[in-house]
Amino acid sequence: MEVSSTEVQNKFGCYLKLAQFEEIIITKNGKKAAVIKGYTETEKDLSIMADHAEVYDWRSEKMSYEDFLKLSEESENRYEYIDGEVYLLASPTYSHQNIVMELANVMYNWFKGKECRPLTAPFDVTLTKDGNKNVVQPDIVVICDIENINERDRYTGVPTMVVEVLSETTRQKDMVRKLNVYFFGGIKEYWIVSPLRKEVYVYCFTEQDIKEYRVYKEVEKAESMVFPGLEIPLEQIFT
């Protein structure tokens, strides 16, 4: 991230926090002049940070929503913001993306000509939980409120359905923390896809309650409860 020396002087504390995630390059008169980097006490700390940065869910101390917006807008990296903590999103694997594309392809064809639209990450979704904003990038979203696209071409609504494909490093976050965000944030249906178990877990939410929960195994078809008729053969996505 590059910022001017004047900007750093005005918001030094903010940029100290942002430096935990990436280098802050300070410019003066249009030229690079200095850099702010995150600091750790020992080489052991450095190795721990490097390991975590590679596995997607390395996170920081608490950060304000305003500071997170600045980080995400000025950075080329991808982040999620959940319960005041920032998660660096690493590049997904081939297997992960293949499953996402198989799901998205079925959904694209099924929703074609209908009011709702499926979209794939990266696509920011902002949801409110306990009065606090969270920003997530589900693998797939289905939005039925196209009118909530603002003048900056950004989505400001609440998806009807979200899909997350698990990995070893995101399992806990997707099945616990993001489940809570989707539950309280107004999502109607949440699919969790487990490539390891070759299963799909479908949650149907209504008025902050779990209306129904189903598990579909590899030889079955996963069925939507919110969109009757939407079925996906699991053998197709797990091959």
Termini separation: 40 Å
Q: So what's the overall shape?
A: elongated
Largest sheet: 6 strands, mixed
Number of beta-strand segments: 15
Q: Spatial order of the strands in the main sheet?
A: 6-9-10-11-12-13
Beta-strand residue percentage:
25-35%
| Broad CATH class of the largest domain | Alpha Beta
Radius of gyration: 20 Å
Low-pLDDT regions? 39-60
Q: Please state the second-level CATH architecture of the largest domain.
A: Alpha-Beta Complex
**What number of structural domains do the residues give?**
2
- Find the CATH topology of the largest domain: tt1808, chain A
Helix percentage range: 25-40%
Order of helices and strands: EHHEEHHEEHEEEEEHEEEEEH
Structural class: alpha+beta
- Count of separate DSSP helical elements: 7
**Mean pLDDT reading:** 82
Please, what is the CATH homologous superfamily of the largest domain? tt1808, chain A
Describe the protein's architecture and organization.
This protein has 2 domains: 2-89, no CATH class; 94-238, tt1808, chain A (Alpha-Beta Complex), CATH 3.90.1570.10. The termini are far apart. Strand 4 (78-82) and strand 5 (85-89) form a beta hairpin. The model is unreliable at 39-60 (pLDDT under 50). The strands form 5 sheets. It has a 6-stranded mixed β-sheet, sandwiched between helices. Strands 1-2-3 form a 3-stranded mixed β-sheet. It has a two-stranded antiparallel sheet with strand order 4-5. The chain is built from 7 helices and 15 strands. The chain has 239 residues and is α+β, with helices and mostly antiparallel strands. The chain is 31% helix and 31% strand. It is elongated and about 60 Å long. It has helices at 5-10, 12-18, 43-54, 65-74, 94-111, 171-185, 234-238, and strands spanning 2-4, 24-28, 31-36, 78-82, 85-89, 117-120, 125-129, 132-136, 140-143, 161-165, 189-194, 199-205, 210-217, 221-223, 231-233.
